[in-house]
Amino acid sequence: MKPTKKQNRSFHYYLTPEYRLITPKIFLHQPLMNNNDVLKKLRVALMLRDDEIVDILKGVDFKISKSEIGAFCRREGHPKYMDCGDQVLRNFLNGLVLHLRGTKENPKYPGDVLKSGITGPSPRKTPHTKGKPFYPKKDKKKS
User: Fold this and answer.
1) Fewest CB atoms within 10 Å of the CB: 15, 22, 81, 141?
2) Domain spans of the chain?
3) CA angle centred on 57, ends 69 and 85, rounded to 5°
4) How far apart are CA 43 and CA 94, in angstroms?
5) Distance from C-alpha of 118 to C-alpha of 47, rounded to nearest angstrom
């Protein structure tokens, strides 16, 4: 039997005829998040590049290369895909806490760290400008 839209949730609580709440029933058709998904979502949400992730991991004495970070962030069917282990994710989360909050001796405000780390998109040269700045033409007055 196919679940309805209301039942299409990861946890579905249901009532017995006595109106008592029963433990949640898990539908197995929904995929669960793995370590790679957590790492990818944090990377996108915090706008981190591979080299920034490597620096965060260096802060907790965990050495990893940029290519390994790229392999963790690939799609699951890709030939270069690698599973992100518990140790890598644990060290990344610990390093992220130190990166955002700082230490007891040198505390930081996370909002300031996130604002200073955002560089924004790099300016692109559009094909119609050919590297020259674009100035709109002024209207000529007809007399």
Assistant:
1) 141
2) 35-117
3) 55
4) 15
5) 7
